[in-house]
Specification:
The complex is a heterodimer of chains A (about 240) and B (about 325).
Chain A lengths: L1 E10 L2 E11 L4 E6 L5 H9 L4 E8 L2 E2 L5 H6 L2 E4 L11 H8 L6 H14 L1 H5 L10 H13 L5 E5 L7 H18 L2 E6 L2 H7 L2 E6 L2 E7 H6 L1 H7 L3
Parallel strand pairs in A: 3-8, 3-9, 6-7, 7-8
Antiparallel strand pairs in A: 1-2, 1-4, 4-5, 9-10
Helix pairs in contact in A: 3-6
Chain B lengths: L2 H20 L6 H26 L7 H17 L6 H30 L4 H20 L10 E2 L7 H20 L4 H8 L1 H6 L4 H27 L1 E2 L6 H14 L4 H17 L10 H6 L8 H16 L16
Antiparallel strand pairs in B: 1-2
The chains are: A alpha/beta (about 240), B mainly alpha (about 325).
């Protein structure tokens, strides 16, 4: 579904990704783990066009999308939940969700998506008239994911969904991520610092270190890998 | 407020301003001049609020757009002699529109390359742009350069001023409250997230800039035909700042608040005019023969502004962000 070939990206003079290649098969959850500054967020930004790739190809359904502006990439069914729950704090929950369906013109389709989001996150329905900035951290994360679902994506990129959340909430969010993948068949690329959890929910994974992929494989195999265990899983 | 009601309100405002303008002859001309200034400042502040308040792009160049509109409209009407009321009205309307359109084109030209900048950088670039416009007029002999330009016709009246103000308020409100318009607020709240939602953020920012510049240009035309004399220094940096102050004081993204602030900040310097009289009292003039005493009014005005900003940084008329409705 998505394939990166030799992708290089940089912030000014600093190269953050040194030619990474990875592939995400349809219907799967693939995770990208690694330490701070390894280039995980950069990879997602490059895919969604928020950062322009220097070199390499980003193949989405066989089509090279590198260099397209973000709003056109979103149109192709690729949705990005940015790090740090970037919701629109001055809009209500409902308005945030409507912004997510910005490119959808079919009202019935929007209503269907809305019903699905509310069914997945009942808390959002309770708070639909509330100003998003006044939601709790977990609710904001739910809103960020729900908003991304509103665009009816085929491919969803989640950046650190566990960031700053209480352990119990992290569990809920990850259950929802699995549910979205299983029920809707949405392919997911998950970036996560919590490697343990990420490898638990995903089918396969990639380990990123200072802009290079150092390990890859089946999630279960990665969890048993001694290198991964000592570096990311705490022994 | 539904869209339908907004249209009715607009119509009512237009009719009311037409009605009042029929009786304008009975109003003291100084009062009338201040009223026009209020209307013009409402147009300027509400249109800048679309850029600074709703879209979150800090622009300091509004006086530049005003200058473009003002000079354009003045040059057009100056080509004509005395006309009958109907022809004069049509000419003035055309001139105002032309001024607005040229200002909008200027906004587009400035906006396209600069709106990729954020925050402080955009503020500096727009500030520079405003000054460039002013310097261009200052050196343009066709419009009198630094000597200024006499505007032959005092076409500005109550109807045109407040009619344009009503249309400005209507357009900005309708734009922001539409589904399309939520994009402006989304861009302000989080540009990255807005982009990730599939919003063409550049298009929104340029739209806000162009619409804002258009109305600033109309305001410039009204100003030109009210004061009847244009000088480049009338459109300097301080004029841009004065409009920004109205927006901040009224509350960013709060149109009713910004309107009230525009009214207050137009009246305040007028209300303080008596202070300028102090040094002319014989005893005081002898005791304090300093030049600055003549500007007491502006010192007090500035102090009031500082006080207001310290006590109500969120804007004078912003109590809540927005009402939170029960779920």
């Amino acid at each position: 579904m998505l394939e990166l070939r030799n992708l290089t990206a940089s912030y000014g003079a600093i190269t953050a990704l040194h030619g990474i290649s990875l592939s995400v098969p349809p219907g799967r959850i693939v995770t990208l783990i690694g330490a701070n500054g390894a280039g995980k967020t950069t990879t997602l930004k490059a895919i969604s066009g928020l950062l322009r790739a220097r070199r390499g190809e980003i193949l989405y359904d066989g089509k090279n999308i590198a260099g397209l502006p973000t709003h056109q990439i979103v149109k192709l069914g690729l949705s990005h939940v940015p790090e740090g729950r970037m919701i629109f704090v001055n809009l209500t929950v409902m308005e945030n969700l409507q912004m997510g369906a910005y490119l959808q013109k079919d009202r019935q389709a929007i209503q269907r998506e809305l019903d699905y989001v509310f069914a997945t996150f009942p808390r959002l329905q309770e708070r639909r008239q509330q100003i998003a900035g006044t939601l709790s951290g977990g609710e904001q994360q739910m809103l960020a994911i729900g908003r991304a679902l509103m665009s009816k994506p085929k491919f969803l990129m989640l950046d650190e969904p566990s960031l700053g959340l209480a352990p119990l909430l992290v569990k809920t969010i990850f259950e929802k991520i699995i549910e979205i993948n299983r029920q809707q068949g949405i392919t997911i690329l998950l970036v996560e610092q919590n490697a343990n959890l990420a490898l638990e929910v995903s089918h396969s994974g990639y380990v990123l270190e200072t802009g290079k992929i150092t390990l890859q494989g089946d999630s279960a195999a990665l969890r048993r890998n001694p290198q991964v265990r000592s570096a990311y899983l705490g022994g | 407020m539904t869209f339908k009601h907004a249209k009715l309100l607009l119509l009512a405002a237009l009719l009311l301003s037409l009605l009042i303008s029929l009786f304008a002859g009975r109003i003291n001309s100084y009062v009338l001049f201040v009223l026009y200034a209020i209307g013009i400042n409402i147009i300027l502040a509400v249109s800048l609020n679309l850029i600074n308040g709703y879209t979150g792009q800090f622009s300091l160049g509004h006086a530049g757009f005003m200058a473009v509109g003002g000079y354009t409209a003045a040059v057009i009407t100056n080509q004509f002699g005395d006309l009958n009321a109907f022809a004069a009205g049509a000419l003035f309307f055309g001139a105002l529109l032309a001024g607005g359109l040229l200002a909008a084109v200027t906004g587009l030209l400035v906006g396209l390359p600069t709106l990729r900048l954020r925050g402080d950088y955009l503020a500096i670039v727009t500030l520079g742009f405003g000054e460039i416009i002013r310097v261009i007029f200052q050196n343009m002999n066709a419009v009198g350069a630094a000597r200024g330009l006499s505007v032959m016709h005092g076409y500005t009246n109550f109807f045109w001023t407040f009619g344009t103000a009503a249309v400005t308020v209507y357009v900005v409100t309708a734009l922001v409250h539409s589904t399309y318009g939520r994009g402006f607020i989304a861009v302000r709240d989080d540009e990255v997230a807005a982009e990730a939602m599939g919003i063409n953020t550049t298009k929104y920012k340029v739209t806000a800039f162009v619409v804002g510049a258009f109305f600033a240009g109309m305001a410039g035309g009204l100003y030109a035909h009210s004061i009847q004399f244009l000088t480049p220094s009338g459109f300097n940096f301080m004029q841009s700042i004065a409009i920004v102050v109205m927006v901040i004081l009224g509350g960013m993204g709060n149109t009713p608040g910004v309107i009230i602030a525009a009214i207050l900040l137009t009246l305040l310097p007028e209300g303080l005019r008596w202070l300028a009289g102090i040094p002319s009292l014989p005893g005081i003039a002898k005791a304090y023969p300093f030049a600055w005493v003549g500007n007491t009014r502006m010192i007090i005005y500035s102090l009031l502004l500082i006080g207001l900003m310290l006590t109500r940084p969120q804007g004078l008329f912003t109590w809540k962000r927005r009402p939170i409705l029960p779920a």
